[in-house]
Structure formats: structure tokens, C-alpha cells
Recover the amino acids of this structure.
């Protein structure tokens, strides 16, 4: 093998390694696009990938503002004293061209841009900071569904000769930036839709429960003086019903506020959450619900949430379907393991209502399958026993798995 053949082989190996790096970078960027990274983090990731692969000395993503100006949204390698110049001067000259014509713009010698018509002395002075450090610049437009979003800008310290592969790769990075921005917008829109749906749900619950309870309470309060005068014993019943309605409305409001702050549910004591559920159901049914609690030891957060959600689903079924006269909720926690968590816990919700045949297909209708899935996730045992006209008992039992290990 002669020397020229050996040099050619080295060049081929270097090019092969570069292409492998490009492929790995593109795969990494696509993985990042499918992650939960924020838009600023994604764009930072893209410019940091583009910097070595495009052999640039600095990379920036400029965003097109509503007033037609361009400002840097993400940057790597650009000195602080050049940032303002890049925002102002380049935003008025090279990068702006790429946005206007929707095509990449490459300038081999930045000094030539000083001869651009319409360049003010202030712009020229700001632009001078860039020229002191860089000689060449490449600006590639970023478009999202034919909408001009901004520009991917590459800076080169030395005069650069741009080849087709580098241009194609720069365009690929601009497309990835567009995908990142578009995905971020879609996530934001989905979050907004979720917030809108949650607000509608809360509005319905306010109307269906709290407002109706308060309306019923106001009617009872208006008629109660006359009832007490005519039949004191009925007045006592009315007072008790009024108390249940008001307590239920307050508990409903507390519950809705907790749902708005999920961390608050995780931090709340389980017995307080269950007591709140019992008061909500009492207000809806206008019947007292017995709640008992034994033990004070701590449950893991996921277990606590599963117990709360199971009780919530069971109580909702009772309110909607059971037509029960007597309802009880019981929570028992026993022992304390070395890690500070209780050894075992049992939740029981019982009623003497309509019940159902255990052979009938009621699991989906009553949400029992969802209860079972949540129980399985924490390694708990769920049992549901019911007979027609003899009520229903839902029981959830959990044991600390660490106790089972030798």
C-alpha cells in the first residue's frame, strides 16, 4: 500500500466515524424528543449536539418575536459580550434573511455584511463584536407547519467552506428543533385541555353536590323555625339533617381543594381523608355514617392513596346505587416495622343496601376492576362480598412486604 492509498484510507475511516457520530446524535435527539424534557432543555440539547458535528464554534437558535425581531432562545459557545450583538445585528441582517426567504443563508466572510444597505451606525457597532470573533455564519430557517418560528445559526471562527453534507446536516438539526418545539406545543395544549376538563369536572361536582347541599340546607333553615313551633320533635330531626348537609358541603369543598393540589392528598393523614369521605356521603344521603379508626402507624404514600381511592369508589357506589340505611367505614393499622411503617392495614366499607349477586357482571359498572388493579399494584388483597338486599362489604388488606423477607 503506497502513502496516497494509506492517506485515502484514513480519510475514509474519519468520514465513517463522523457519519456514525451523526447517526448516534440523531438517534439521541429523537430519544430526547420523546422524553418529558422542557422545550428549553430540548433546544439546549440540540445546539450542543450540533456544535461538534457541524464543526461550528458556536450555535444558537433564534426565535422570531411578534414584533418581527429575532432573539436567542438557546445558545452554546457564544461569549457573553457577543450575545447582545447576535440578538440585534444578526437578527437584522443574516438570520433575518433566512426567515424572509425561508432558505439557508451562508456568509463566508462576515465583513461583507458591513456593506449591506440600510445598516445603521449603531447596528454596525454592535455587529463589530461578532466580526472580532467570527468570520463565517450559516443561518437555517426553522419552520413548523409552514410557519416561520426562527433560525438555527452556526458561527465559525475561521472562514469556512460549506459543503453539501454539512448543509444537509444543519437542515436536519433545524427540522429536529422544529419537532421539539412542535411537541412542546402539543404537550402544552394537552395540559391546557386537561386543566379545562378538570375545571369542568370540578364545576359539575360543585353543582351536583356542594351547591345542591347548600340549597337544601337553605330551604331547611327557612322552614325550620315554623316546624320547631308546630312540632319540636320534627324540628330536632330537621336540625340534625341541616347539620349533616352543612358538614357534607364543607367536606366536599375540602375534597375538591385537595384534588386541585395532588400533593396535599399525599401529605394528608389517611384517617382524616376517610373521615372527610364519610361526611361527604352523610351530606349526600342525609344519613350519619359510622367511621372508626384504630392505630396511628404510617402507611407508604402509594398504599395510602390506594386505600383512599378504594374508599372513594366504594362510597360513590353506595351513594349512587345502594339505597342503604346503615353505612360504616373502618380503618385498622397494626404494628410497626423497623423501617417505621405499619405491619399491616385493613380497610372495610360496609352497607345494608340493595347489594347484588356476585355472579352477575357488575365489576365494570361499579368500578371493581379498577379497585382490583390498584390493589394489585401495591400487593394488597381486595375482597368484595355482596348479596341481593343484604348489602355489600368491600375490604382491602395490605401487609408490609419487608416483613415477609427473611
Amino acid at each position: 500500500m503506497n502513502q496516497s492509498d494509506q492517506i485515502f484510507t484514513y480519510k475514509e475511516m474519519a468520514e465513517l466515524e463522523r457519519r456514525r457520530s451523526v447517526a448516534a446524535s440523531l438517534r439521541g435527539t429523537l430519544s430526547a424528543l420523546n422524553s418529558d424534557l422542557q422545550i428549553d432543555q430540548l433546544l439546549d440539547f440540540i445546539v450542543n449536539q450540533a456544535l461538534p458535528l457541524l464543526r461550528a464554534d458556536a450555535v444558537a437558535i433564534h426565535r422570531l418575536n411578534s414584533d418581527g425581531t429575532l432573539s436567542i432562545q438557546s445558545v452554546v459557545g457564544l461569549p457573553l459580550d457577543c450575545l447582545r450583538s447576535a440578538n440585534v445585528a444578526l437578527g437584522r441582517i443574516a438570520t433575518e434573511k433566512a426567515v424572509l426567504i425561508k432558505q439557508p443563508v451562508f456568509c463566508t466572510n462576515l465583513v461583507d455584511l458591513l456593506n449591506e444597505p440600510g445598516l445603521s451606525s449603531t447596528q454596525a457597532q454592535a455587529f463589530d463584536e461578532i466580526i472580532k470573533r467570527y468570520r463565517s455564519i450559516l443561518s437555517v430557517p426553522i419552520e413548523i407547519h409552514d410557519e416561520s418560528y426562527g433560525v438555527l445559526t452556526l458561527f465559525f471562527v475561521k472562514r469556512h467552506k460549506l459543503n453539501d453534507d454539512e448543509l444537509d446536516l444543519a437542515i436536519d438539526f433545524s427540522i429536529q428543533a422544529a419537532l421539539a418545539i412542535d411537541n412542546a406545543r402539543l404537550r402544552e395544549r394537552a395540559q391546557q385541555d386537561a386543566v379545562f376538563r378538570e375545571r369542568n369536572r370540578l364545576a359539575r361536582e360543585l353543582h351536583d353536590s356542594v351547591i345542591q347541599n347548600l340549597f337544601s340546607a337553605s330551604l331547611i333553615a327557612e322552614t325550620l323555625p315554623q316546624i320547631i313551633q308546630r312540632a319540636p320533635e320534627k324540628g330536632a330531626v330537621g336540625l340534625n339533617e341541616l347539620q349533616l348537609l352543612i358538614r357534607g358541603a364543607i367536606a366536599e369543598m375540602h375534597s375538591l381543594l385537595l384534588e386541585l393540589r395532588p400533593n396535599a392528598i399525599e401529605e394528608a393523614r389517611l384517617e382524616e381523608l376517610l373521615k372527610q369521605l364519610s361526611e361527604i356521603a352523610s351530606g349526600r344521603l342525609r344519613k350519619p355514617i359510622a367511621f372508626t379508626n384504630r392505630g396511628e402507624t404510617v402507611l407508604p404514600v402509594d398504599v395510602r392513596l390506594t386505600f383512599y381511592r378504594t374508599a372513594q369508589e366504594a362510597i360513590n357506589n353506595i351513594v349512587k346505587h345502594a339505597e342503604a340505611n346503615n353505612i360504616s367505614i373502618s380503618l385498622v393499622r397494626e404494628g410497626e416495622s423497623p423501617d417505621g411503617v405499619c405491619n399491616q392495614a385493613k380497610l372495610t366499607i360496609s352497607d345494608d343496601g340493595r347489594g347484588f349477586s356476585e355472579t352477575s357482571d357488575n365489576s365494570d359498572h361499579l368500578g371493581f376492576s379498577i379497585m382490583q388493579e390498584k390493589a394489585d399494584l401495591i400487593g394488597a388483597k381486595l375482597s368484595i362480598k355482596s348479596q341481593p338486599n343484604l348489602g355489600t362489604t368491600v375490604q382491602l388488606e395490605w401487609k408490609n412486604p419487608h416483613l415477609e423477607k427473611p
Remarks:
- Confidence is low (pLDDT under 50) at residues 1-5.
- Strands lie at 58-64, 70-76, 105-107, 136-144, 147-156, 290-294, 327-334, 344-351, 381-386, 392-399.
- Residues 3-188 form a domain with the Beta-Lactamase fold (CATH 3.30.450.40).
